[in-house]
Amino acid sequence: GRRARGQPIHAATTLDPSTFNSDDLSTEEESSAYTNVGVLLLNLGGPEKGEDVEGFLYNLFADPDIIRLPAPLSPLQSTIAAFISKRRAPKSRAAYESIGGGSPILKYSNA
Fold first, then answer.
1. Where are the domains of the chain?
2. pTM of the entire predicted model
3. Measured in whole angstroms, how far is the alpha carbon of residue 3 from the centre of its chain?
4. How many helices (H) and strands (E) does the chain have?
């Protein structure tokens, strides 16, 4: 059936590349096995500068499409996001400073 709007998408694969033996398949089956593999890449962005880190983290943790809290906690998502982003920002800011002051994701995404 159709997935209801707002429900998470679940994906599964039955093809484990580490155990795949193409000698067990005919040419047609082998071709089909390789064409049924999909790859999904996500880019959630990143802070451009050190001073953007806390706001970036808040937006990440406050977005229910990225992090969905259990129903009883969902009204607190914004408060929890503020708490986590404030506590995590100094360590994250230092990590970004060690690679040039911000996330390189925008530069690589636009390349």
1. 50-110
2. 0.63
3. 21
4. 4, 0
The Cα 66–Cα 69 span in angstroms is 10
Q: Which amino acid is at 22?
A: S
Q: Residue 103, exposed/middle/buried by CB under 10 A (0-12, 13-18, 19+)?
A: buried
pLDDT at 109: 84
Alpha helices in the chain (DSSP H): 27-35, 53-62, 77-97, 105-110
106, two tokens: 């925008």
Q: Judge whether 91 and 68 are in contact, CB under 8 Å.
A: no
- The pLDDT tens digits for 19-55 are 656 566 666 655 555 667 788 888 899 999 999 999 9
